[in-house]
Model the fold of this input.
Amino acid sequence: MEVTGIDDERDFYRAFTDQIRQARESLWLWAPWVANRLRSLLPELRDAVARGVRVTVFIRDDTDKLQRQDNNQSLIADLRAVVHTVVPMYVMHQKIAVIDERTVMLGSLNVLSQHDTREVMLTMRGSYFARKLLEHEHAEVFARPPKCGRCKGTEIEIRRYKQRNWVWRCYATVCKTTAKGSSNAWTQDIRLPGSR
Done:
C-alpha cells in the first residue's frame, strides 16, 4: 500500500473528482450525512454511472435529526435517482471512498455534506488494502438489502444491536407500526461469510 495524497477540506474535492473521473468499475462510498455538498458531486456520479461504474453509497438512516430534514431527504432522493444503491445504516460514521478496489480515500471528511469544518483525508493505493477494507465493512453483503419479509417493501436499513449481530430492518412507517400503534419493525439477521 502506498499513500499517494493527503488533502484538507479545500483540496479534497479536486482529488475526489479526479478519482471519480478515473473510475472504471466501482465506487464505494461511506458518507454519513447528505446535504448541499451533494449538488456539486451529482453530475460526476451521474457521468460515472453512465460509463458503467457501479456506485454504492452507505448513509445514515432517517432517525438522525439532520438526515431527516426535508431538504436532505430531497437530496437523498436525488442521490437514489443517480446511483445504483443507497443503503441507510443506523449511526454509521465512517468516511471512506474505495475506487475500483485499488484506491482508498479515508479520513474525517464527510464527502456528501462537508461545509466549513477542518478535515483531513488520506489517499492510498493498493488492491490488497482496498479489498481488505471492503471485506471489513461487509460491502458486498451490505449492498444487497432484501425486501421486507412483512410488507415486501424496499425501505431497508442496517442496524447492529448490543445483544445481536447485524440485522436488516424495515423502516417503512406502514410496516413497523402495529394496529395498536406500537413500533414492531421487521428485522432479519444478516448472514456474513464465515459466520455460523
Q: What stands out?
A: Residues 2-142 form a domain with the Endonuclease; Chain A fold (CATH 3.30.870.10). The chain has two domains: 2-142, 148-196. The first strand starts at residue 2 and ends at 8. The helical segments are 12-22, 38-50, 70-82, 127-136, 139-142, 173-176.
